[in-house]
């Protein structure tokens, strides 16, 4: 019971503290698998994007593009993204509240 209450408090605090980051145009496509704001993936094998470090998300997307990270589904998703779109998507998902949300990250993403 206690972790549930703590989780609720943290998620409320996270919602209040979320910095305003414009929703990138391409983010809607990502929600189909990663959930709204990248916070609620459709299946346990789909990672949570919300609250991960922006530079990690950015790095991963570049690796899917150039094949250093191999995953057929994400390679197809990342293929058409520009460098700017990847940066914007990474920044957006990093600042969304979710189970991995880190309040100290708000305002520190680049
Ligand atoms: C059809 C389903 C699907 C869609 C749509 C999708 N993804 Fe993914 N995504 C996945 C799966 C499955 C993985 C795990 C792949 C792996 O194991 O490397 C993943 C992994 C990722 C990762 C690595 C996360 C980590 O924790 O290592 C990032 C970043 C990511 N996706 C971003 C995006 C973005 C941005 C979009 C929209 C442009 C998107 N995804 C659209 C299914 C999807």
Report on this structure.
With 110 residues, the protein is an all-alpha fold. It has a domain at 22-94: Cytochrome Bc1 Complex, Chain D, domain 2. The chain has five helices and no strands. It has helices spanning 2-17, 27-34, 54-66, 72-79, 83-94. Helix 3 (54-66) packs antiparallel against helix 5. The protein is globular. The N and C termini lie far apart (37 Å). Mean pLDDT is 84; it is low at 12-18. The structure holds heme C. Heme C is lined by residues 26, 29-30, 32-34, 45-47, 49, 52, 57, 60-61, 69, 71, 73-74, 77, 89. Heme C binds next to helix 2, helix 3 and helix 4.
Summarize the structure.
With 110 residues, this protein is an all-alpha fold. Helix content is 52%, strand content 0%. Helix 3 crosses helix 4 (72-79) and helix 3 runs antiparallel to helix 5 (83-94).
């Amino acid at each position: 019971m206690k972790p549930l209450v703590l989780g609720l408090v943290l998620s409320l605090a996270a919602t209040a503290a979320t910095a305003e980051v414009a929703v990138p145009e391409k983010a809607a496509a990502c929600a189909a698998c990663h959930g709204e704001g990248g916070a609620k993936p459709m299946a346990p094998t789909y990672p949570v994007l919300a609250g991960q470090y922006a530079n990690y998300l950015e790095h991963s997307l570049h690796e899917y593009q150039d094949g250093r990270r191999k995953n057929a589904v994400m390679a197809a998703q990342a293929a058409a993204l520009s460098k700017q779109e990847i940066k914007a998507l990474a920044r957006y998902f990093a600042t969304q509240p979710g189970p991995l949300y880190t309040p100290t990250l708000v305002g520190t993403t680049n």
